[in-house]
Structures are given as C-alpha cells and as structure tokens.
Amino acid sequence: MLIRSFKDIEGSERDVKGALGTWRSKRIILADDGVGFSLHETTVYPGTETTLWYKHHYEAVLCVEGECELTNEDTGEVFNITPGDMYLLDNHDRHTLRPKTLFRAICVFNPPVTGREDHDADGAYPPPSADA
Ligand SMILES: CC(=O)NCC[C@H](N)C(=O)O
C-alpha cells in the first residue's frame, strides 16, 4: 500500500504547469508506480482556451470544482461541465476547454503519464516509450 498527499507534491517535479499557461497538473500516481494508469489533479484557468488531442492516451476527467465549456472538435458538440460531471476521451477526441471559472478536475490517464509531459503543437503528449 502507498499513501501520498497532494501537499507533498506542490512545487515538486510532479507539479507541472503547461507552457501555454492555461493549466496546472499535480500528478500523484505516475507510470513508475507500476499500476497501469496515472492520476492527476488538474486546474484550468478561467478565460483561457486550450485545445487538446490525446492521440496516444485515454483520459477520464471528473470535475470537482468550477464550470467549463467543453467542445468536441470532432463532432462540434458543446457541453457545460460542472462538479460531478465526468467526460471520457474514449475516441482520442480532439477537444477544447474554455473554463468560465477556475476549473478543477481529477484526471486518469491510460497509458500512464511518466512525469513532466506537456502538450505538443497538436495538444498531444508523446507516446510511452517502448521501455516504459
Ligand atoms: C483537462 C486536461 O486534460 N488538462 C490538461 C492537463 C492534463 N489533465 C494533465 O493532468 O496532464
């Protein structure tokens, strides 16, 4: 059994701020924990716009605070995500986040993120390396 707290992660290597300045991710479980997924607390800032496309990962996002407009860029559908809502990117869906307030969510990635990943020009994280 492993116990870990977000308190221990703040300001550490597991506390990642996206280069675009639109989000922060505290990564409490990573690939080297060896359980097949990673678990993050993500904050996305109000008034920002972030387009993402996880070509190599699945992500589940469970909102715990705030409100965010979510657009599925593949279908044109627009959703309003509030606490208790979850969206699952089960088709590697290209999507855009436009938070109306500070938006806080618990995110799960499969395959797991390894540590310091940030988005490339397409909004993707790199695929896991063969030896991961
Ligand atoms: C909602 C979302 O995907 N935001 C980008 C950060 C990502 N959730 C992460 O924690 O790495």
UniProtKB/TrEMBL annotation:
<dbReference type="GO" id="GO:0019491">
    <property type="term" value="P:ectoine biosynthetic process"/>
</dbReference>
<comment type="pathway">
    <text>Amine and polyamine biosynthesis; ectoine biosynthesis; L-ectoine from L-aspartate 4-semialdehyde: step 3/3.</text>
</comment>
<dbReference type="GO" id="GO:0033990">
    <property type="term" value="F:ectoine synthase activity"/>
</dbReference>
<comment type="similarity">
    <text>Belongs to the ectoine synthase family.</text>
</comment>
<comment type="function">
    <text>Catalyzes the circularization of gamma-N-acetyl-alpha,gamma-diaminobutyric acid (ADABA) to ectoine (1,4,5,6-tetrahydro-2-methyl-4-pyrimidine carboxylic acid), which is an excellent osmoprotectant.</text>
</comment>
<protein>
    <recommendedName>
        <fullName>L-ectoine synthase</fullName>
        <ecNumber>4.2.1.108</ecNumber>
    </recommendedName>
</protein>
<dbReference type="InterPro" id="IPR010462">
    <property type="entry name" value="Ectoine_synth"/>
</dbReference>
<dbReference type="Pfam" id="PF06339">
    <property type="entry name" value="Ectoine_synth"/>
</dbReference>
<keyword id="KW-0456">Lyase</keyword>
<dbReference type="InterPro" id="IPR014710">
    <property type="entry name" value="RmlC-like_jellyroll"/>
</dbReference>
<dbReference type="InterPro" id="IPR011051">
    <property type="entry name" value="RmlC_Cupin_sf"/>
</dbReference>
